[in-house]
Amino acid sequence: MIDKLKLIREEALNNIKNINNIEELEKLRVKYMGKKGELTLILREMGKLSKEERPKIGQMANEIRQELEKGLANANERIKEELKKEKIQKEKIDISIRTKTKNLGHTHPLLATIEELENLFISMGFSVIEGPEIETVANNFDALNSPENHPSRDLSDTFYINEEILLRTHTSPVQIRAMKQMKPPIKIVSAGRTFRFDDVDDTHSPMFHQLEGLVVDENVSMANLMHTIDIFIKELFGEDMKTRFRPHHFPFTEPSAEVDVSCFECRGEGCEVCNGTGWNIELLGCGMVHPKVLENCGIDSKKYTGFAFGMGVDRITMVKYNIDNIRLLFENDNRFLEQF
Ligand code: PHE
Q1: Which residues, in sequence order, are CB contacts of 9 under 8 Å at separation 6+?
Q2: Which alpha helices (DSSP H) does 34-108 contain, by range?
Q3: pTM value?
Q4: Which atom of ligand 1 is nearest the CA belonging to 284?
Q5: What would the mean pLDDT of 85-114 be, rounded to a whole number?
Q6: Using a 6 Å cutoff on CB, does residue 184 contact ligand 1?
Q7: Of 69, 161, 178, 327, which has the maximum CB count within 10 A?
Q8: 60 CB-contact burial (10 Å; exposed 0-12 / middle 13-18 / buried 19+)
Q9: What CA–CA distance (Å, rounded) separates 293 from 187?
Q10: 310 in ligand 1 pocket by Cβ < 6 Å?
């Protein structure tokens, strides 16, 4: 019987060493220690043994059982560990894989110009405000003293939404909004989109940008206006730039002027770009706020005066960045935009 036990032990330990999964493990457990297991049977036959043999063999059989149990437990651990490893391996994600990189954009040249202009005016004590692109006829024309028959009111020049609402044709209605909301002293600029029924060519687009400025206070004079514009142009384009004021007409300013500045190319010498004149014409419109406009907004025109100016931001951007076609500013072709 001792030999038999030794044999069982050896065989069982060997088998345990080689098991690879839970099913095999269970089979082995049953084979040796199940109800009809080889070891169980031996323990059951103990009764047949002599009194001397019984304790010896009993002890041996128990030790073997413990040994096998321990072996099976170890094998169980080993199999679980392997399963876990396999699972981790299967679920592994390669976080080092290369993905498409996203290109970081940068400021559009138009916005860069607007920000530069706004910062310049902020440094001169102006505040920046905003106005809506969809405006009332009242703010866009009526309050700005535009006569009923003014050509800019024409259906063929202006995008009307209905009889009272339109896409603003200039940023000047922001003047009205500012004067109705604030009390003098007022010193604001406002930039944004404007719309006119224009055909597209190299320098025209039905959607374009303007920057408006307004100052209202006691004793504001034409000299203040001219000085402000002169400083601003020099800051923007260089100390050697000159400004020239030509009389003009706007319904909402009186007197009014158009401003020319030295040609950006030749700085005043005269070249092909400026047709030899040395001047870049019509860079902005300006004037003293019409007393009627002040009164329309509830500001006492006997006590207060003001000046206003408006300029085309697209035009300034094109000059600054040497862009010869306005379409390029709106097509958003990255090959173009990446150059700035
Ligand atoms: N709104 C005028 C235009 O669009 C420009 C302007 C603004 C003129 C302010 C005078 C004062 O042409």
Answers
A1: 64, 67, 68
A2: 38-44, 53-90
A3: 0.71
A4: 5
A5: 87
A6: no
A7: 178
A8: middle
A9: 16
A10: yes
